Amino acid sequence: MRRGRLAWPFLAGLIVVAVTILAAFGSPKPPASPGSATATASAKPSTAITLPYTPAGAQLRWLIAVKHLPMSVAQIRAHFDAAFRAQVSPAKLNQGILGATDVKLVSIKVDEPSRLAVIVSTGGVLQVQVALAIDRQGLISGLRISPVTPTAWAGVDAAVRLVAPKVRLLVADVTKGTCQPVHQIDPATAAPLGSAFKLYVLDALGNAVASGKARWNQPLTITPQLKSPFSELQHKSDNTRISVHDTAAKMIFKSDNTAADMLINLVSRPEVEAVLTTTGMAAPARDQPFLTTREMSILKLDQWPTLAQRYIAADEAGRRALLAATVDRAPLPSDAARKAWTTPRDIDSLEWFASVNDICRLYTSLAALDRRPGLSPIGDVLSLSDGWLQLDPAQWKRTWYKGGYEPGVLTMAYMATTQAGRSYVVAVFAENPSEPINEATATPFMRSAIRGAFTLARSRCGPAAGHLHEVLGIRRVFHPGSLIP
Questions:
Q1: For a Cys-Cys bond, which of 134, 172, 322, 468 suits 179, CB 3.0-4.6 Å?
Q2: Which neighbouring-strand residues pair with 242?
Q3: Can you give the CATH number for the domain in which 43 is found?
C-alpha cells in the first residue's frame, strides 16, 4: 500500500496480538446494528472530550502523538510488551503505522485503567475505532484499529480513496432489473477484476444449465490439465470427481481457480466470451481471449516477463495462437515462482477487465437467471459468503458477494436485497500498478465504505444513523499473531 495514503494510525491487518482485544475486553457482545441508537449515544462534541489520565490513556496519547517514523526499537520496547513484540516485528509495526494530521477525539466507548476504546476522526471525514489494552506494567499488550461505517457519501468516498491511487465505485438500485445509479466514482472505466471475473463464468454456467448442456448434479473430473495454482482442488488426486454444483460453490465461495477452469472447460471459452456481450459489457474485446486461471498464472509466473510481453504485444489472433502453442502446453509454475510474485505485474494490460457498470449489469443478469426454474443454485452459491459485510438482518434478507485480489488489485462486488424487496449493487475496484495493495489493511476500509453505501442507498434521503463496526462485540476469533481478520 502506498505509504502516506492511510490516515493515522492504521496498523497493518488490524493488529490483534498477544492479549487480544477480544480477551482484554471480556466476553463478546453483539455489535450494534445499523441505525442503532446505542452506537452513537455516548458521542459528544470533540471539544468537550479528552483522553483519560489513566495508564491506558497515557499509551493512547503517546501513540496518537507519534510524529517521527520509523519508531526506534528502543521506543517500541518502551511502549509494547514482550508478547506483543514477539508477534509483531518493529519493521511490521512501522510499516503499519502511518502519520496524519487533524486527529480529533469524538467519543469514549470504554474507559478503564487497563483498557480503552475510543472513536477518533481524521481529516474531519473518516472515523475509526481504537481499542487498546495494557498489561500490569502499563505496556501495550493488545491493539485493534478499525473503521467506523460512514454515514454520508463523503465518508464513503474518502474510505474508498484511501485504498489505492485508482478507485472505481458504483452504488446502483437494481430492483427493476436495470442499473439505476445512486452514487459513483469513475464507473465506466474498465479496471482489473482479479477473481471477480468468476461471476462471468457463473453466468455462462447458468446459460448452459438453462439450455440443457449441463446439469447441476453432473460429475466433473479433475485432470492434470485443469489444475491451477492457488486453489484447493489443485491438490486433489487426479481423476477425482465433483459435481457441477459443488464446483461452482468452490469457485465462488473459496475462489478456487481449478474449479473456475473446470467450469470454463465445461461450458467452453467461446460461451464465456459470449456472455461478456450478452450481459452488456461495454468493451468485451479487451477480455478476448478469455483466459483461464492456469493460463493467467503461467503468463505471470513462467519466464516472467518475457512470455507475458509476447502475449501483451500480440493481437487477438496472435494471443490465441500463443495460448495453444505455448501457454497451454506449459507445466504449472513452480512454488518458487509463485512465492516471488509479490508486486504488481502488468495489471493494466494482463488481467480480466470490466467496469463497475459492467459488473452491475452482470449482477442483474445473474439475478434474472436465478429467478428461472432450475437455476436457483446460482443465488445459493453467491449467498455462501457475504465477505464479512454483515448487513443488519433486520433490514437485509440476502447478500451476494464476489471479490478478487492479486498484487496491485483489490475488488469487492456485492448485490443485496432488503426485507422490503429492493435490491442494490455496490462495487468497488481498487488498483495500484506500482505497489501491492495491503489487503489486510485495505479490506476493512472498503468493507466499511460498502456497508455505509448500502445503508445510504436504502435510505435515499441523506445520512442515516451509523454503527460501529465490531466495536467490542468482535464476531470473529483472532489468534495470537494474526495480522489478517
A1: 172
A2: 220
A3: 3.10.450.280
Inter-residue long-range contacts of 322-326, CB under 8 Å, 24+ positions, other chains counted:
323/289, 323/291, 323/295
Residue 55 belongs to some domain of the structure: yes
Whether the Cβ atoms of residue 416 and residue 423 lie closer than 8 Å to each other = yes
* Structural domains counted in the chain: 2
Predicted TM-score of the model (pTM): 0.83
Q: Can you give the pLDDT at residue 10?
A: 39
pLDDT at 461 over 90: no
DSSP letter (8 states) at residue 54: S
The whole-angstrom separation of Cα 116 and Cα 467 is 18
Distance CA 107, CA 40 (A): 9
377 lies in some domain: yes
Question: What DSSP assignment string belongs to 287-322?
Answer: G-S---HHHHHHHHHTTTTHHHHHHHHS-HHHHHHH
With 50 as the cut, is the pLDDT of residue 23 above it? no
Cell of 265: 472447460
Kindly state whether residues 244 and 350 are assigned to the same domain: yes
Question: What is the extent of the structural domain holding 49?
Answer: 21-148
Mean pLDDT computed over 259-277? 98
Residues 33 and 131 in one domain: yes
Residues 6+ apart with CB under 8 A from 467: 31, 32, 33, 34, 35, 36, 39, 149
The reply to whether 100 and 206 lie within a common domain is: no
State which H helix or E strand residue 199 sits in. helix 198-210
Q: What is the CATH number of the domain that holds 190?
A: 3.40.710.10
Q: Are residues 133 and 200 in the same domain?
A: no
Q: In which band, very low, low, confident or very high, does the pLDDT at 36 lie, cut at 50, 70 and 90?
A: very low
Residue 369 and residue 227 share a domain: yes
